[in-house]
Amino acid sequence: MTDRVAQLANHLNYPKGLLAGQVAIVTGSGQGIGAETARLFANEGAKVVVADIDAAKSAAVADSITRAGGQAISVPGDVLDGSYIQSLVAQAAAFGGGKIHILVNNAGYTWDGVIHKMSDKQWETIIGLHCTAPFNLVRAAAPYFRVRDREPRCIVNVSSTSGVHGNPGQINYALAKAGVTGMTKTIAKEWGPQFGVRCNAVAFGHIETRLTAAKEEGAYVTGPGGEKISLGIPQKQRGAAKGDGGAGDYPDIPLRRPGTATEAASSVLAVVSPLFAYVRGQTIMVTGGRGM
Question: Region Disordered: start and end of each range (predicted)?
Fold first, then answer.
């Protein structure tokens, strides 16, 4: 079929969107990849629960979706807080008329340090953020996924190539993201056969976000103890990745550029869509070809 014919066929099959009638929670969706994921889901007919620790940013994303004709609510809070997890699931279910169909565990940041200098707090925070918090959310949402109503249910855990290949200065983050793979496969094996739940991970390579921007730009998050955690990559290291001090392309990425937040979010949309109905328990590498 030509591209145009394929587009028409898709429109006829899904006239109200690929995710029409589904309710989706997207954590960390106040900005970056999460915000783009929320917008793309809404464009495809989903009712989206925007969840972010930054209440103002969370509200802004939800407002932008509703102004564009979509359906969204903002439920801000800290995913490291167990009581917030319970509230998030309850509010999502109420918004969805008693149902939740999609869960995207996207919230997170990095707190880098070389092995011999990494503190207990750095270690515990990153493991808690990328492993324990997603587990707590999946467990809290279990009553809405362990059902036999034949409606689609899908969980996407956001991972990283650091969890596949490791990365200097990120032993905490690398371990956490490697753990996401095991969690993903276990969910797929436990909830797939009886309840039809699909669970996959998406591992991002170099995507242009605040985590990969120049550290000198000053982006930071506030840690659980009030610490100011700097985000980004030192400019010298970013320049080295380009191969010539910063002026050239990215020699280790076949596409010769980082991915955009929209491109990253599009991969999440693809995984939750009916087009990936037979894909389960996989870690989808979204790298522009890097590392192949």
Answer: 231-258
